[in-house]
């Protein structure tokens, strides 16, 4: 997993009341799956996708 994935995974796990073993080694794909699972538990994904949905066009 990337450093950014590790950091985000730790943040989400904390929000979900879980812990992440600092020695765990995941592939990028495995980390992405775990992040998705934690986002569903914490609502963490809603903040990011919401920002993209607020884009408006100028006339």
UniProtKB/TrEMBL annotation:
Name of the protein:
DUF3072 domain-containing protein
Pfam families named in the record: DUF3072 (PF11272)
Write down the InterPro entries for this protein, in alphabetical order: DUF3072
Stretches the record annotates as Disordered: 39-59
- Organism of this sequence: Steroidobacter gossypii
Highest taxon above the source species? Bacteria
Taxonomic lineage of the native organism? Bacteria, Pseudomonadati, Pseudomonadota, Gammaproteobacteria, Steroidobacterales
């Amino acid at each position: 997993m990337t450093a950014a994935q590790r950091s985000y995974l730790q943040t989400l796990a904390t929000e979900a009341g879980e812990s992440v073993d600092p020695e765990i080694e995941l592939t990028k794909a495995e980390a992405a799956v775990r992040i998705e699972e934690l986002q569903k538990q914490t609502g963490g994904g809603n903040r990011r996708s919401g920002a993209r949905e607020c884009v408006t066009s100028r006339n």
